[in-house]
Amino acid sequence: MRLTSLSAAGYRSLMSIRLDVGQVGLFVGENGVGKSNLYRALQLIKASAEGTLATEIAREGGMQSALWSGRRRAGQPVRVILRADFEDDDTAVKSSYQVEIGLPPPASAGFGFEPHIKEETLSVEPGRRPVEMMTRKGPAVFARDGDGRRLEHPVKMLNSETALSSLGNSGRYPEIGDLRAAVLGWRFYHGFRTDRDSPVRKPALAVTSPLLDEDGANLAAVFATLKHIRQDTVDLDRCIAEALGGAELDIPVPKETASFGLVTPEFPKRVFRPEELSDGQLRFVALAGALLSYRLPRLIALNEPETSLHPQMLPALADMIARAAERTQVWVVTHSRALAEMIGERTGARALTVVRLNGATMIEGMRPTGLMPAGDFD
């Protein structure tokens, strides 16, 4: 189930924006234009599937921080509205999910700036007309079961709960469960910690790991899986060597834990452990684990992957992103026009320039309605 478009309204600097999404979504712009808000809006769709949407918004300062602070039309509800559209590559069936988050009413027992899930809808379009599979207003949810019957879900939703998570996890509503499972398969990599206690610097449990955790904690196990289970590290070896001056990964057979190190041409008999690597070296190695793992998630989102990397590492990073895009969807937000150009050359994707206009995050060339002109995402 492939993501085809993302819409966001009323969220931070995203007054109203809709983006069609191809195999590679590539966004470039200066500091402060709101690139990360695009990335974050996509991440909040996954949080809705996880059931952590209200918590995630609370962590970023609550609704007073999440809401668009510019001018609104008179009578317009004060809400954050997020929508994602999908298409099944096997059946061509289209699906749409939308969630609206607002403030608690004045007489509510909730906290003043606590995010309240107000409405949710999920529709499926198997033919000419969409079929509503789930509708939620306040605590009440109606959904279609496996036989197509529209039923009221017996459990009322709390204000902080999403119906996508609760119903999708119940086993009673197949279409909701399928979409939830698809979104839970996304991975967001927005900077790996490089401090002394970083999970990336630690050994990992010796468990076969087909893809990288979002915090990179199983990186050593991902490398061991490639080396000793798949027995194919050709792409990994090439990218590491190109980016790190001919260096090689040392990946011993795991015992209780998996580990890795780096061997450089200057010191061919010395294995540098992860705790000895520079921030740039470690970040690149972690990105290699994310982009070249045995399996890839349904969607990989990267936020400023060039951070701490030497410019000489960027061609190898672009190569890894292009290789990943052959197997899955990739979403990249970057400051670096050089990196964006390299990715574009390798994938054919056109970089969209993110700008700020009258306080709102827009895409260069976007219409005032928040839509891109037809043909701009070919």
TrEMBL record:
<dbReference type="GO" id="GO:0016887">
    <property type="term" value="F:ATP hydrolysis activity"/>
</dbReference>
<dbReference type="InterPro" id="IPR014555">
    <property type="entry name" value="RecF-like"/>
</dbReference>
<dbReference type="GO" id="GO:0006302">
    <property type="term" value="P:double-strand break repair"/>
</dbReference>
<dbReference type="GO" id="GO:0005524">
    <property type="term" value="F:ATP binding"/>
</dbReference>
<dbReference type="InterPro" id="IPR003959">
    <property type="entry name" value="ATPase_AAA_core"/>
</dbReference>
<dbReference type="GO" id="GO:0000731">
    <property type="term" value="P:DNA synthesis involved in DNA repair"/>
</dbReference>
<dbReference type="Pfam" id="PF13304">
    <property type="entry name" value="AAA_21"/>
</dbReference>
<dbReference type="InterPro" id="IPR027417">
    <property type="entry name" value="P-loop_NTPase"/>
</dbReference>
<feature type="domain" description="ATPase AAA-type core">
    <location>
        <begin position="182"/>
        <end position="339"/>
    </location>
</feature>
<protein>
    <submittedName>
        <fullName>AAA family ATPase</fullName>
    </submittedName>
</protein>
